[in-house]
What we know:
About 30% of the residues lie in helices and about 15% in strands. It is α+β, with helices and mostly antiparallel strands. The protein is built from six helices and five strands.
Amino acid sequence: MKDYDGTELGEGEPASGFAAVPDSFQRLWTPYRMAYISSNSEKAPQQHDCPFCEAPRLDDEKALIVARGTLAYVLLNLYPYNTGHLLVCPYRHVATYDEATPQELAEIGELTQVAMRVLRETANVDGFNIGMNQGRIAGAGIAEHLHQHIVPRWAFDSNFFPIIAGTKAVPRLLGEVRAEIANAWPPRD
Length: 189
């Protein structure tokens, strides 16, 4: 199995080989999350002020971009609520919906429709949460750059982790999901 950046992941070691007293806890082993933890350290390189302005300048795989339009693009959320959680962003740095041009809004809408079709095809999605948080007070993590969330949902996708442990189990690696969605994205006319 490979990590999101292509490095080989080990199979892990069984706990039975270590000196310890077994307990009643189940472990959710997510070694690929170490990249996110270490990126918050003081030693991590300084990031651009706006990740949605920086992403289009990068390689699609590195930026998790699945499709590019003329005025907007689609990328995977780096911190997804569910597998396949996409964001649709205008290239132009605007903060709120009312600052976007009619052409930008039209393309965001078109890209959202295509994203829904592709997610249904690739992931057998049962439904979607689609929305925008406008402003930090409304819950926008990156309030300075407009972005729309497309969160795929399945009939039985809830589990006890978010409720009990404040944890979300995401069963697939970002790079794997990005490649699948990008490969299924229809060509532009």
